[in-house]
Amino acid sequence: MVTMNGAACGCREFRMSRRRFLATTGAAAGVMTAGSLFGDAFRQVAYGATTGGNVVVVLSCRGGADGLSLVVPRHADDRRLLDKLRPSIAVPDASLVVPGGDFGLHPELAPLAPMWQGGSFGAVHAVGLPAPNRSHFDAMEVLEDADPGSSARSGWINRMIGLDSAAVPEDAVQLGSALLPTSLYGAAPALGAPSLDSLNLEDFGSGAAARRAGLRQIWATDTGVLGDSVRSTLDTAERLEPVAKAADPKAVGGSSVHLDAYPKGPLQEVLANTAALIRADVGTRVVTVDYGEWDMHTGLGEGDRDPSKGLMAEQVRHLAGSLNAFFTDLGAAAARVTVVTISEFGRRVQENGDHGVDHGYGNAMLLLGAGVNGGQVHGPWPGLADLNDGDLATRTDYRSVLWEVLVSRFPEVSGGRAQVFPGFVPETVGAMS
């Protein structure tokens, strides 16, 4: 893995697991699927049937983000232990953003401080899987499948989409490549394309109408999987053609994708496209964004406890700047958008000899935007004196947070919990208002 500044980072297991993960995700029978890869960020979209509705953006911090650097414990006992176990990389208390009570934020989250102070940015700490799993690939699979013990290849977002029996291909759309994460894999239909503008049927060139008509005629009587997919793809592309034309870089009056509004880096294109899609108001309900490079076995800091240096500072700086730009770019549509972050696991509490931290357990989730009960850290806190084999213990199952977000933003799915998260009974977290 290579970081934004070109430095080597991460473990061999993560690099190999990521390739294995991407290679083993694919098209479900009877639908066309694809992934969206923009550098180290990739995005998938799940569409709903109505416009003007709420949108949830699930931002996956792949590689195991260090929640103890993002949301830093400040209680006197925790602070002493953190300084003892992380003598060269612990974020100093004096540099924390919005310090209040027992926690403060990494200083590079400063661009998002107004949202925290305004109550639209909050966090849940000591959150994670039901049991420790320190394998990147296995933990990703468990996290996104969210149905422990099941052999079915179906992710929790796909199952949520499947609550609508009339789902159409644009209910699950991904831009960039032909790869889907486990969370979107399943029986619900999905559509793939390289980018929003690539959905433009004008790509057929002069005589596009005749070419479309010819394709429809050729596949009109084919009752197989491929025939269904071709017809469905043509229908979907025609419905989304106005969005594709608006996103074209050569669009008259300028593209709807505002790349210049975002800091350069892995999230630039993916969030700019996501904002354009949401503003287009075509019924988008769920967007997932994948932001990698969090596997910091080395160089999380530079050994001098300066939180503006090292890989963590670089990652958080880009994350905060990009999310700040995203909510600004959304304009009025921001009032219906909620972002929630998730990572496959946290990091060890004790630093290693290379100014990094190894795979751990409990972590922090960030929530921003509409409906968030912000300005505070939610969830029972175990403290750093009560570790799980050297890791932050988990006190809140991540599915409780996701379910609370879903029912808050999409009340109509409240009766489908047994399908979205089979066999799971969520706890009240209080992260959503």
Give the gist of this structure.
The chain has 433 residues and is an alpha/beta fold.
Give an overview in words:
With 433 residues, this protein is an alpha/beta fold. The chain has a single domain, classed as 3-Layer(aba) Sandwich (Alkaline Phosphatase, subunit A), CATH 3.40.720. Helices cover 31% and strands 15% of the residues. It contains 13 helices and 14 strands. Strands 1, 2, 3, 7, 8, 9, 10, 11, 12, 13 and 14 form an eleven-stranded mixed β-sheet that branches. Strands 4-6-5 form a three-stranded antiparallel β-sheet. The protein starts with 11 loop residues before the first helix and ends in a 13-residue tail after the last helix.
Broad CATH class: Alpha Beta
Uncertain segments: 16-39
Q: In the residues, how many domains can be counted?
A: 1
Radius of gyration over C-alpha positions, nearest whole angstrom: 22 Å
Number of strands: 14
Largest sheet: 11 strands, mixed
**Relative strand content:** 15-25%
By DSSP (H or I, 4+ residues per run), the number of helices equals 13
Structural class: alpha/beta
Helix content: 25-40%
Principal-axis shape equals globular
Second CATH tier, the architecture: 3-Layer(aba) Sandwich
